[in-house]
Amino acid sequence: MFAFTEPRGDLPLSRRTFLQAGAAGGLTLAGLLQAEAAAGLRSSRKAVINIHLDGGPPQMDMIDLKPEAPAEIRGEFSPIATKVPGLQICELLPKLAAAADKLVFIRSLVGAASLHDAFQCQSGFDAKDLATLGGRPAMGCVLNKLRGSPADIAPGFVDLMQGRPLVRNSARPGFLGPAYQAFRPDISQLFERPLEEGMKRELAAKGENHTIALALSEELSLDRLHDRTGLRRRLDRMRGQIDKSGMMDALDSFTQQAVSILTSGRFAAALDLAQEDPRVLDRYTLQSADGEPPSTTSDRPIATLKFLLARRLIEAGVRCVSISLSDFDTHSNNFSRLRRLLPIFDHGLATLLADLEERGLLEDVSIVCWGEFGRTPKINSSGGGRDHWPAVGMALLAGGGMRTGQVIGQTDRYAAAAISRPVHYKDVMATLYRNLGINARGTTITDPTGRPQYLLDAGEALREVL
Q1: In a domain, 1, yes or no
Q2: DSSP characters over 84-136
């Protein structure tokens, strides 16, 4: 965890602050000296928080309950009324029920690629699309390309997804290349999310650069951190030598940003929850949860603080933040696991909505909550679980100036198929782009062959929310 403060007013680019941030965690001195080309906040407050419900959320157990269906379909949960007349959702989501007027409930999400990662939730595309060119980029990587600048003091895209989305690199830059990748700090010390053995092997195969930490090289001892004047002189001299050689121009944009991120202090401070007001921390903390979840790969109650971390990063200037909540892959023990997991989601999202609104940010920040597919209407007989169901799923939208307090789409009596207003992943992505002021069907980025590619080749912003 980072722990340092903003530079003092008399030291606008404090090297001490710069080095304190690095010592807390991962950029080498060579990396520091190879960077420099950044400072200044983004010109717009428009941003996106993408919440991945890792594993595939069960639509019929959350926002599309079917109380009249047979027992093997309707499950164990009862519907409750919400603030929106006529709308009912799961009894385990009482806080979201009270905040339903701030949400859009999509019950007819279709077009799932049926792949167990979060790439489609990050891009709208199947992973196979343009695979020969490196694949499509995630939305946050597109924002790095279109809106990023060496003057930014925070990364444009921060990926805090753990578990399956991390292992499978769901927030990848595709054909844009690593210069536009997500900034991916390791948050495992804050939020435990154990990996299955197979996932551990997958992650190891990605290499050490799959996560990006911040740390100084060993050539700088902690004692030398206090020699601010001497360090500034040495670093400035070496920096000037690099500038004269022209090497700075050849650095990739991510490395260039590293110095700005650390020298500002703003981004590193945002990642340090110890700097948050204790009353706010208490507000986000789920007090009623007790014990451990039945699945070792599920998030613990402390995961509600991921929602706070997302808000802090947005305030620090990040344009797109992705977090995950695990583990909705409930092939067994569906109901006992959801009894622990849904209250975490309920408290975290409801608190985030209220917090953003109070801070005057909700109109600017778009929130999407979804997963890679839905789950089977029929409960399996092997373990009381629900299996993968790509035919239809669910999503929640909030903020971004959208018209909320409504339901979009309808499923059949078993929540097995969309029977009205099907919404594709690309429609949701088009809506998010529009909220950011980007026409995804009219904006192109160039692929490695020199050919322009539209951000989305299909999909329309949801007319209901405009």
Answers
A1: no
A2: STT-EEETT-HHHHHTGGGEEEEEEEE-----SSSHHHHHSS-TTTTGGGT-P
